[in-house]
Amino acid sequence: MSEIDVLGIGNAIVDIIAKTDDETLIKLDLPKGHMQLISSQDADRLYDGMGPATEISGGSAANTCAGIGAFGGSAGFIGVVQEDQFGKVFAHDLNAIGVKFDTPFAGGQTPTARCLVFVTPDGERTMNTYLGACVELGAEDIDEAQVKAAKVTYLEGYLFDPPRAKEAFYKAAEIAKANGRRVALSLSDAFCVDRHRDDFVKFIKSNVDVLFANEEEIKALFEVDSFSTAADLIRHEVELAALTQGPKGSMIIHGNITAAAPAFPVDQVVDTTGAGDLYAAGFLSGLTQGASLEVCGSLGALAASEIISHIGARPEADLVQLAKQHELM
Known about the structure:
This protein is α/β, with parallel strands linked by helices. It is built from 12 helices and 14 strands.
């Protein structure tokens, strides 16, 4: 199998995104800005309460892989969907943009996962995820040849929610390590960190080379109130840590070295869904091509700025051209 830049392993989800207002969130009893797991019944209830919506293939690691492709890199993805309408759309969308996705469809009747995203005028997103067929992912779905071929195996923290997926994480990490490849992890969400803190700490210490986290997630991991304290603590745990702070930019930590990458300004923040996913895409695009830490961070910031300027978590602009305009490629 030919070498690829990044292999993503994560939840295969179709995003259903609608613009809304704070009053609707209150009416539907949704905590603004949070991500929560919901039942199929709740998914139906919230769908009925949404306004006009856009349906776009999503999932954190899958979005990152799509971003890798948009930067001209090569990527593959492992995740489980059902052989239903949304599952077929998800598979088509990834393969159409050049991301190799051939995980077999799930058996049984559990439908493809979906995430109902409510976006308020300030660009904040409130995410409600029905995992559906995602929970079927297990160690048996990890393609050893794909992991061996990937410079970086990228794992999304959300996948720690289904118990069997943890076995998949450890299997993928073991294969990557045995073949001299890097393992990257996104903490995904502060509430996800709260649910799985001990497991995350254990996995990071033993398996992770590159960690992605925003300010709230890294503070939650170490249960501290200070971002600088959390940054100093992660310095001793991983080879690389890319820590984002929204409009303040990001901090990249490599041993005793600390690099900074400012955020790119945007005219209007439309939807923050996928900002962290695309930051990881830009960063890993640079990392797999041997770019400096500053350039890696800037590519991440550039991709994040593009994604928050429109609805949806997949790039709409030509990221290669944007990078060239800013002399990053």
